[in-house]
Amino acid sequence: MAQQQEVMQKVVDILRPFVKSPDALSAVSMETSILKDLKVNSARLVDIVLEIEDQFGIAVSDEAADKVKTVGDAVSLIMKNAA
Amino acid sequence: MRRVGDDVVDLDEPAIAASHLSARFVARVCAEPELEALAAAADRKRRLWSLFAAKEAAYKAVARGEPAPPFAHRRFVVSGDLESVRYGEQSLSLRVSIDGACVHAVVWSGALQPIAEAGRVHPLETPGAAARRLLESCLGGDGLEVVRPARPGSWDGFGPPVVLRAGRPLDITVSLSHDGRFAGFAASSP
To answer: Please, what are the domains in chain B?
Structure first.
C-alpha cells in the first residue's frame, strides 16, 4: 500500500505541469479522471505517457496508454509494468 | 452510418511549443509514412499539428461505432496531401483548414462534405459553449439544443453530441471540438 501511495504521488507530480488549474489536483484521488476532471487534453496525455516511461523506466504500449482514463489507471499500469 | 469528426488545435498554446522538436513525441503520434513528409516540411510545427488534428478528428468519426476502438494516433495514417485518413480498411476524407494559429481538421465518410466552422472562444464563454454557439448559428439558431446522451465506458461517460430542435433529434451527425482560444464543429449536411 505504501508503494502504491508513493507511485500515486509521483503520478500527481507528473500530471501537475499539464493541469491548467492547480486547484483540480487538491482533491485528487485514484478515481480522478485525467481527461474529464483534470481537463488534460489528448496532446498532453501523449506527453504524460512519455514522462511516465521516462520516470519509471517502463515502456507503455498504445493499447495500455489508451486504457489510462484515471489516476488509478496510471498507478495500476506503472505497478504492473514495474513488477 | 454517416461518420463525421473534427478537431481544433491552437498553435500558440505554450504546452505544444516544442512538441514538433521531440523525436519521441513525433514517433508516438506519427505513422511511418508520415515521418518523411514531416521531416521535409517547411513548417514542421504546422505539419505535425495538422496531422494530429486529422487523427483526432478521424478517431471521433470512427468511434461513433459501438464499441469504440482503442485510440492510438499512429494507427491513423494521414495522406501526404492531407486529403484522407486511413484506419485499417477504412478510408475517410479529410479537410484541414489553417487560419492564423487555428488548425481545424474535418473528417467524413461518404461523398458529401460536412459543413464546418472554427472560431474564437469569446470572453466569459466556455470553450464547449463556443463550439455549440458556432454550430447553432450555422444551423439557424432558435429552438436548437445540443446534448450528449450518456454512454457508459466513454472517456467522460457521454457519447457524441446530438442536435435537438424543439426537443426532437435532427438527422445530422455532429462533432464539436475546442483547444486553447479556438472552438469548432463539423456536421453532416441535413
So the answer is: 4-187 (3.90.470.20)
Q: Which uninterrupted H or E stretch holds A43?
A: helix A42-56
Q: Is B2 on the interface with A (CB under 8 A)?
A: no
Q: What are phi and psi of A27, to 5 degrees?
A: -115, 30
The CA distance from B70 to the nearest CA of chain A, in Å, is: 6
Show the CA angle centred on residue A17, arms to residues A14 and A23, nearest 5°: 100
Interface membership of B26 toward A (CB under 8 Å): no
Chain A residue numbers with beta carbons less than 8 Å from the beta carbon of B70 are 62-63, 66-67
Q: In what order do the strands lie in the sheet with B162-165?
A: B144-147, B162-165, B168-169
* CA-to-CA dists, residue A34 to A38, A47, A73, B26, angstroms: 5, 13, 10, 22
B80 burial type by CB count under 10 A (0-12 exposed, 13-18 middle, 19+ buried): exposed
Query: Do A33 and B155 lie within an 8 Å CB cutoff?
Result: yes
Interface confidence: ipTM more than 0.90: no
The model's pLDDT over B86-125, given as tens digits with 9 standing for 90+, comes to 999 999 999 999 999 999 999 999 989 999 999 999 999 9
CATH of A2-82, one of 1.10.1200.10, 3.40.50.300, 3.40.50.720, 1.20.58.100: 1.10.1200.10
pLDDT digits (tens, 9 = 90+) for A13-40: 999 999 977 788 888 999 999 988 998 9
